[in-house]
């Protein structure tokens, strides 16, 4: 069956990177279309009229929005039953647990990270403290396992690892070391980078930093 697969995203979006990593893990080819976040295409706005955000995956003309929903969709369409590597475990409890932690990551890290690079003084210190607490919770969940799913790289790893490309930005703005605070998490991230799906998807950390600096100036955060 001929598949038409198009991804609308932006190079620095951690949410779009989730989809790119998931597709790479499955070995599925697709067309990538870069979006301008400050001048969004009419196609993006028409396909995701509710949130008007990237990523959007267009599969045979049908759009799927929101990164975690897209990754779950990818795992179901290109399933282990058809010989593709699974992104979620088969056990219902473990699947529910993976969804819980991916949702936790989704609701916490992005917003708290923005506070670190858009605030100063006590507000920034509070944001740093909150972020470190989040990372330490994740370290506790990871434990001594190589990946969040145990021996297998999967859904929770895909949900979290794109944010590793923003660690340098957080450290520059927050003037702290994530590795010093959360060595287990950084070791996990470096392990993930050994996978081609991750290393070829994640952008250069310095490029991300320059982008955040420019966006802060444009939005009046200096």
Which helices and strands appear, and what pairs or packs with what?
Elements: E1 5-9, H1 14-26, E2 31-34, H2 42-47, E3 56-59, E4 62-65, H3 67-77, H4 92-118, H5 121-142, H6 155-160, H7 167-174, H8 178-181, H9 183-193, H10 196-199, H11 205-219
Parallel strand pairs: 1-2
Antiparallel strand pairs: 1-3, 3-4
Helix pairs in contact: 1-3, 4-5, 7-11
Structure description:
The chain has eleven helices and four strands. With 222 residues, the chain is an alpha+beta fold. The radius of gyration is 17 Å and the shape is globular.
Q: Mind describing the biggest β-sheet?
A: 4 strands, mixed
User: What is the straight-line distance between the termini?
Assistant: 52 Å
**Beta content:** 5-15%
How many beta-strand elements?
4
What gross morphology would you assign? Answer: globular
DSSP summary: helix tally? 11
In the predicted model, the low-confidence regions spanning at least 5 consecutive residues are none
Strand order of the largest sheet: 2-1-3-4
Structural class: alpha+beta
């Amino acid at each position: 069956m001929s598949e038409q697969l198009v991804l609308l995203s932006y190079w620095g979006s951690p949410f779009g990177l989730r989809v790119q990593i998931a597709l790479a893990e499955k070995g599925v080819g697709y067309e990538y279309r870069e979006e301008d976040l400050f001048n969004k295409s009419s196609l993006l706005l028409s396909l995701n009229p509710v949130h008007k955000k990237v990523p959007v995956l267009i599969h045979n003309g049908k759009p799927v929005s929101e990164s975690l929903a897209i990754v779950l969709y990818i795992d179901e369409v290109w399933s282990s039953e058809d010989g593709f590597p699974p992104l979620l475990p088969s056990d219902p409890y473990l699947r529910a647990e993976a969804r819980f932690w991916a949702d936790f990551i989704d609701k916490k890290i992005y917003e708290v990270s923005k506070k670190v690079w858009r605030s100063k003084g006590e507000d920034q210190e509070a944001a740093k403290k909150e972020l470190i607490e989040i990372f330490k919770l994740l370290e506790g969940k990871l434990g001594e396992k190589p990946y969040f799913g145990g021996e297998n790289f999967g859904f929770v790893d895909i949900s979290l690892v794109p944010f590793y490309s923003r660690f340098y930005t957080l450290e520059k703005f927050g003037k702290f070391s994530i590795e010093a605070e959360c060595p287990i998490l950084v070791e996990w991230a470096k392990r993930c980078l050994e996978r081609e799906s991750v290393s070829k998807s994640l952008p250069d950390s310095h490029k991300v930093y320059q982008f955040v600096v420019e966006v802060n100036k444009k939005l009046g955060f200096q």
